[in-house]
Amino acid sequence: MALKLPLQAPEFCQNTLLKEWNLQCRSGNLLSALQKHWKTFALVVFANNYESSKEDRLAEKFLLRPMEHFLCNGDPETILKSLKEKDQPSQLCGKVFKNGEPTYSCRDCANDNTCVLCIDCFQKSAHKKHRYKMSTSGGGGYCDCGDVEAWKSDPYCEIHDAKTKPMSDQNPIEVLPEDLTDRASALFMATLHYVVQMLTWEQCDCLPSEIQPEGELDDSYITMLFNDELHTYEQVINTLQRAVECTQEEAVEHATIVDREGRSSVRDGTFSYCEKARHIIEHSTSRHGSKPLKVQIMHTIVVAHQKFALKLVTWLQDIIGKSDGLRRLFCTLSTQPYENGESLIEKLILSDTQMWKNARMLVHQMMMSGVLMDQECKKQFSIIFTKHYEAITREFVSDDHNRPVSITSLSVQIFTVPSVVGY
Ligand SMILES: [Zn+2]
Ligand SMILES: [Zn+2]
Ligand SMILES: [Zn+2]
Fold first, then answer.
1. Ligand 3 centre from 97 Cα, in Å?
2. Which residues form the UBR-type domain (predicted)?
3. How far, in Å, are 46, 88, 303 from residue 143 at the CA level?
4. I need a labelling partner for 315 at 20 to 30 A (CA). Which of 38, 204, 276, 344 fits?
């Protein structure tokens, strides 16, 4: 049976699925059970070229909601809310900024211009009446509310000032119900395994065997254009107008996405149709002896699974933000040895420069959300980072042109947190 796109959703029953996942989880096979589901449904959602609102809706229904129900074994909203209530009050905000979110600094009180507040903290802070400055975050970075070393005065907003109870030393994982801890552990590991695998996947026309569709594949490909620092915006726009016969407006849109996210799908269709565009792009950008723009012809199924992996990164970030216990559990699991003595977080750090910009940014945001709010996790993370520092920087230096954002920026963000310096 050949895979035909667009792929219709087969019969779907969340309860049957959850029963199967629970059963497999108890025998240590959750990853295979998830892969079996994702093998079809990641394509149903992400391989059909739906507009993004429809894609989001289907991803919720077929992929994310079942995982939340599995994790909670009940209504996610009620159960996650009751977990949140068990959190230690934190005097640190630590909210990680998404691209486009406003940030506020105070000219009177900030110790340097990297010290910023999120909008919620700012509106409840004394700095609202000082000489403040508003900016827009490019993604990454986090709110410094509650960090006494970041502010000359008024380090706490009203929300975080109220939480001045002394912290207890209890491990937050211990307050989680035991069966939830088991399911969360299996789910975090399986999800992160898939994320690492797909974001570092380098084959263009096949998937890891566990999720490769059966039979022959449809002739359905994508011409993927990557960013570099050699070619100007104008060159990319001119080339695209010729290569994929689009309007100037469309070419500008592609160039903007390439610049912002590190890659953009500029054409989809049969292999030979996509190949034609690649040939023209490479040919016209390599004249005068310069290195051509990087273009890859990727099968739709590979791009679809990578889209889903990115969705899961954001989902994980969101879930671990729901409770101290889930966050600590995620950090502990993701930093412990997994394969060849390497942890999954190490695998992500070490392949940082192989990933495209958007993947890298989302992974950084997830890591920051994981480590910044928890001293124990910061410590774990800095041990790993220190261990790989040389390899990471070597990789960074050898990859000279197209990686403006790098692990270096992550380390700067994490290691400028004053409390980490002692480790
Ligand atoms: Zn804040
Ligand atoms: Zn605050
Ligand atoms: Zn101020």
1. 20
2. 91-162
3. 33, 18, 33
4. 204
CA of 340 to the centre of ligand 1 (A): 39
What's the gap in Å between 85 CA and the centre of ligand 2? 18
- Residue 124 tokens, joined: 């409840």
- 153 CA from centroid of ligand 2 (Å): 13
The answer to whether 44 touches 8, Cβ cutoff 8 Å, is yes
Closest CA to 237 of 248, 226, 224: 248
Separation of 402 CA from ligand 3 center, angstroms? 39
Residue 334, CB-side half-sphere exposure with 13 Å CA sphere? 33
Mean pLDDT, the chain, whole residue set: 86
Residues with CB under 5 A from ligand 1 (ion): 93, 95, 118, 121, 143, 145
CA of 160 to the centre of ligand 1 (A): 9
Tokens of 420: 């980490």
What's the gap in Å between 122 CA and the centre of ligand 2? 7
The encoded tokens of residue 87 equal 């959190």
pTM, rounded to two decimals: 0.82
Taking only the tens place, the pLDDT of each residue in 5-48 is: 667 788 899 999 999 999 999 999 999 999 999 999 999 999 98
**Each residue of 365-394: pLDDT tens digit?**
888 887 767 777 777 777 777 777 666 555
Q: Which-ligand-closest: CA of 116?
A: 1
Q: How would you classify residue 227: left for phi > 0, otherwise alpha for psi between -120 and 50, otherwise beta?
A: beta
265-308: pLDDT as tens digits: 999 999 999 999 999 999 988 877 788 999 999 999 999 999 99
d(CA 66, CA 4): 25
Distance 117 CA to ligand 1 centre (A): 5
| Cα-to-centroid distance, 111 and ligand 2 (Å) | 16
Dist. CA 224–CA 217, nearest whole Å: 19
Q: Which two tokens stand for residue 212?
A: 């490769």
Nearest to 324 by CA among 375, 281, 385: 375
CA triple 360-362-367, angle to 5 deg: 95
Q: Which ligand has the minimum distance to the alpha carbon of residue 147?
A: 2
Residue at token pair 């910009």: 357
- CB contact at 8 A, 311 and 278: no
Residue 168: which of 90, 95, 93, 92 has the closest Cα? 90
Strands (DSSP E) along 139-246, which ranges?
221-226
